[in-house]
Amino acid sequence: MADPSDMSKPTTSGPSAATIEAPSTVGGADFLPSDTLLNRFKNFYRMATGSMSPEGQRTYWADADERYSALDCKRCEDNRDYLLKYSPIIRYMSENIRRLGGDINSSNIRCRTCTTGMLGGFDHRYGIMLCANWVEKRNMLEDVLAHEMVHAYDHLRFKTKLDHETDLKHVACSEIRASNLSGECRWSNEFFRNKIMAFTTHHQDCVRRRAIHSVKNRPNCADEKQAEKVVDEVWQSCFRDTRPFDEIYR
Predict the structure, then answer these.
(1) Which of 89, 125, 136, 215 has the fewest CB atoms within 10 Å distance of its CB?
(2) CA-closest candidate to residue 183, choices 212, 145, 213
(3) What is the sign of the dihedral through the CA atoms of 192, 194, 199 and 202?
(4) Could you check whether the bond before residue 244 is cis, i.e. omega within 30 degrees of 0?
(5) Is-contact 218 160, C-beta < 8 A?
(6) H/E element holding 122?
């Protein structure tokens, strides 16, 4: 599962919206129905200036996701099709998946509007899901798709299923490999997200952080402490395993 922890939708803070009349709240929510341009402007102003409550901000983003779902999914599908044709890492992973008897293509790489904050996901029965409302840029989608394709490769090569009953060590190993090989932890990504804590170990730090986050969110993981323990137990062998690449691609 791709890790959304570095790419959450923005919330802002700022002065109270003195020039916008206070809304009548229902259940404490200060979000107005977005059926008129005026209401949309008021909602945007409150959100942008930090005068909207956390509940209102969550409603704001959910409403925006719903209204722009068709456009988001169309953009995602166009980027997906482009990457399947022209991206070296996506083409390479597709070929290696085919060699193992699988087939990842536009029919089982589905763009959807997600409500969980995920960037993407893989299910051996369903295929790959890309969260169109969270993955907006093509280079970001390339990282997410490559990540999920590593999971698909691992399922075919090592018979991992990554469902809620899977051994956490299998989950941790596949998450380490996916973050290590997809390109999402390359230096430029980490730099612009202010995640680089040490220049010499930034790649390892990113892979480990993402793997722990993913393992921690599994239903059969008790807490972050257990996630850290499981990741540490498989770290050496799984980080060194770069199959199907000869080395870390990017």
Answers:
(1) 125
(2) 145
(3) negative
(4) yes
(5) no
(6) strand 120-123
Q: Which pTM was predicted?
A: 0.79
User: Catalytic: 224?
Assistant: no
**What is the spatial distance between Cα 161 and Cα 155, in angstroms, rounded to a whole number?**
6
Residue-wise pLDDT tens digits, 67-109: 889 999 999 999 999 999 999 999 999 999 999 999 999 999 9
Q: Using CA atoms, how far apart are residues 221 and 240, in angstroms rounded to an integer?
A: 24
Q: Rounded distance, CA 152 to CA 142, Å?
A: 15
Among 21, 77, 142, 148, which one carries the catalytic annotation? 148
User: By three-state DSSP, how is residue 94 classified?
Assistant: helix
**In the 3-class helix/strand/coil scheme, how is 145-171 assigned residue by residue?**
HHHHHHHHHHHHHHCCCCCCCCCHHHH
Give the pLDDT of residue 8: 40
In sequence order, the 6+-apart residues with CB closer than 8 A to the CB of 166 are 160
SS3 call for 70: helix
d(C-alpha 93, C-alpha 125), whole Å: 19
**Residue (of 176, 178, 168) closest to 224 by Cα position:** 168
